[in-house]
Amino acid sequence: MSERISPHFTREEFACRCGCGFDRAASELVYALECVREHFGRTVRINSGCRCERRNAAEGGKPNSQHLYGRAADVAVAGVPPDEVADYCELLIGDRGGVGRYAAFTHIDVRGARARWKG
Fold first, then answer.
1. What is the pLDDT of residues 34-68, one digit of tens each?
2. Which domains does the chain have, with CATH numbers?
3. DSSP-assigned beta bridge partners for residue 45
4. Which of 12, 48, 61, 94 has its CA 20 to 30 A from that of 111?
5. Which of 116, 30, 41 is nearest to 80 (CA)?
């Protein structure tokens, strides 16, 4: 069983999908995702969390992706359209991070500066 790092998330959910063991998500990111979970009252699925350089390149990630530092997650909320999740994330994260809008998921990160885009 994976280590629980918050009321609704485990370390395993954030782990790099290549199996390298990188699973250290920033506490600010975990807190933000708990806020998303509380707001919608639904399961938040992490499609991609931490990524090593090899996995990031394989997924077409930017060389300075926040996933490389454990400060980003691509998420989907059960039964909620990604644009609605992104709208809430923009309010939640403000100028402290990034929000990317995609057709099937929402990217949220805690980079410390405002960033917005559509994928």
1. 999 999 999 999 999 999 999 999 999 999 999 99
2. 11-118 (3.30.1380.10)
3. 76
4. 12
5. 41
